[in-house]
Amino acid sequence: MAISASTVNRRRSPTLLSRLRSRRYAAYWMVLPLVLMVIGLVVYPFFYSIFLSFENKKETKFVGVRNYERLIRYGTFWLVVGNSFRFTLTAVFFKASLGLALALILNNLPFRGQRVWRGVSLIPWVMPLALSSLGWWWIFEPTHSAVNWIFVQFGITPKPWLSDPNWARVSTIVTNIWFGTPFFMIMYLAGLKSIPQSLYEAAEIDGAGATQRFRYVTLPMLRKLIAITMMFSTIVTFANFDIVRILTRGGPRYTTHLFGTYAFNIGIETGHLPRGAAIALFMFPVLGLAAFFILRNIARGEE
Amino acid sequence: MAKITRRKFIKDVAVGSAAVAGAMAAPGVVRKAYAQKPNLSVAMWNHWIPGATDVQRAVMEEWGKKNKVDVRLDFIGPSATEMLTVASAEYRAGTGHDLMVLTTFDGAFFMDKLEPLNDVVDYVQGKYGKYDDNATYLSCIDGKWNTLPAPTGSHSYPMVTRIDMWREYAGIDVVDIFPPDVRKRDPKKVDAYTYDVFLEACKKVKAAGHMFAGAISECSDADDWVCPLFMSFGSFPVDKKGNITIESDATLEALEYMKELTEYMPKEIYGWDDASNNRWIISGRGSAIQNPPSAWGVAARTRPDVAAQLWHHDTPRGPKGRYRGCLWMNWGLWSFSKNKKVAKELLMYLSESAQQWKLISAAKGYDMPQLKPMYAHPVWEEIGPPKGGQYNYMFRGDEVPVVGGYPAHPTIGAQIYRKFLIPVMAAKVTTGEMTPKEAMKWCARELKEVIE
Question: Which terminus has fewer CB within 10 Å in chain B: N or C?
Fold first, then answer.
């Protein structure tokens, strides 16, 4: 259809309002609420906690890095650092290994049975962590532990699950593994499904056995996924709060305190919010470095 | 039908919205014009005793009705952590409730945003006499009453002893030493009930398979029996001036005593929480704990045979006196409240004996008043079985009511208490992790962190 000259003249250049209304900007409008939420609930508190960590206890004076200095010179803080690393590294290792083993088993099940088992094994992960921690507390309860009751029936010596530092660490790690393994399993299962069957067939023709197929086909194909899930899990596990708070409250003798629970104890319970913020912020460089190295590894792998 | 243009649509919607908004706002305006009723928002403690919260609500609403004040109630807890978190949020935000029930040390934490309550305290003390020393220590700092002691939720940690087991296995009749009438007490028998006697008894009840037990872990119950025990030996972590005094012969003596005492206690105590000792005595395995009557309350419902044998009484006497742990709750009025006058009127009303009486009855004896005249309430004599078993839950003798962390400034005391420094120090010695001297040094270092 031909456009007359008068129509062309009537066309005005688009105003700012009409521009913003255009389809091009629709996506921005749609993500705006989320962006605002992230700014309000993540970005602002993060920068505020940095600011807070440079203040004195009454939050009336800027004290620079004094809170950090004090923590570095403080023995209990290093106990918490050790606890956090021990807890995270052990839990993530077992979660990843068990998750992979479970994914391999599930992947080899017949399709119908696989759906049922997949659903069942996700239950620990979909249950609220506070609730499942309460269940585990009942299992490990110092005096009336359900596991110990079973042990006694079989003539095994009961274990001091929550009253001995080493057993208490084991208890918190086991609870975390129970909760987090399904996440790894479902991610690895998705990864296994995406590996082309032809690769396995080719390996088999070349005479590769089950172990070799796993080592030279499955693992390299899952490498990126393993790195990302481990990075994600490391961040979440390092910042864990619920399990320790419910099972041990940091005890016995502070030996299960993590950054999160210790920051809460110092910041909220004993009223030293700036020091609590400093403890929590100690996690940031550690997690930042972990993320950097893992992502760099992935990038190198891609090259 | 007339064609609806976009412009007309927007105009109509705008007019319509304005009309709806006006209609919605109108009743509010009318209501305001009619009522002019002040309102008061109050955060109260959600009592764990069934029915106690209803009585609290009724008392508050009755006052609101009488005084034409719109009282809005929120019940928080019973977890102390939940209450502390809500109070911290309101303190930082500078907005929230007008009046709030605060846990033991919160008056000191939030004192710069709490309205002085000296006038209310003067009124109450003028009528009923002085608050006990522990209440004064927690509420009044440098002459300013930051909070008003409240009986609701306040409790202490007396001995809770199985009458039958201690009679049979330890040869001690706690009913005879601490009868349900203070006039019938034999001062010699009370005086002879010392930590040494207690230790011997613990040895005997252990041999019978029914140990005394108390948490030595990161929980409030641990502070509430371990700290008073240390004070009974003369060991105080920090003095009033802020000097660290933990490294002393008294602490050494208390640690040595704890080392021996824990020989006759179950090993699980290092992982116990606040409810573990309740379960211990209710199960019938234990013969003594230190606790408010909550253990008795649960036993009365689930194990009446055990409940009928539980006697609440004074703690043993140490070389430097007899101390009992107490957790007092307090009313705090935020300085940002716009209804301070009515709030103070309500606090005065709540402190009257008629209201206190009702609240104490509703809590079935669990709540402890901080004013001596309220001890005349008959609940502690009547509740049972065993009848009179809670009579000595009130301070009838020479016990000193204290909170872990005393006598340090409450802001320091709070940290000593909430970091569980004394129980953790005791645990380090009694588990063999450290020698008493090493543990004292460790504690002194922790205290340095707390003070600086």
Answer: N
ipTM of the predicted structure? 0.86
CA pair distance A288, A238, nearest whole angstrom: 12
Q: Are B199 and B260 in contact (CB under 8 A)?
A: yes
Report if residue B56 sits inside a domain.
yes
E strand or H helix at B67: helix B52-67
Number of domains in chain B: 1
Our CA angle for B250, A163, B438, nearest 5°, is: 35
Min Cα distance A34 → chain B (Å) is 24
Nearest CA in chain A to B216: A252
Dump pLDDT digits (tens) for B233-289: 999 999 999 999 999 999 999 999 999 999 999 999 999 999 999 999 999 999 999
Across the interface, of B81, B427, B449, the residue whose CB is closest to A252 is B427
Cα gap B84→B105, rounded to integer Å: 10
pLDDT tens per residue, range A249-289: 998 999 999 999 999 999 999 989 999 999 999 888 888 88
Other Cβ atoms closer than 10 A to B219? 20
Which CATH superfamily hosts domain A77-302?
MetI-like (1.10.3720.10)
Tell me the DSSP string of B304-357: HHHHTTEEEEPPPBBTTB-EEEEEEEEEEEBTT-S-HHHHHHHHHHHHSHHHHH
Instruction: Print the domain residue range for B95.
Output: 39-155+327-377
Between CA A97 and CA A179 the distance in angstroms is 14
Q: How far is the C-alpha of B404 from the C-alpha of B220, rounded, in Å?
A: 9
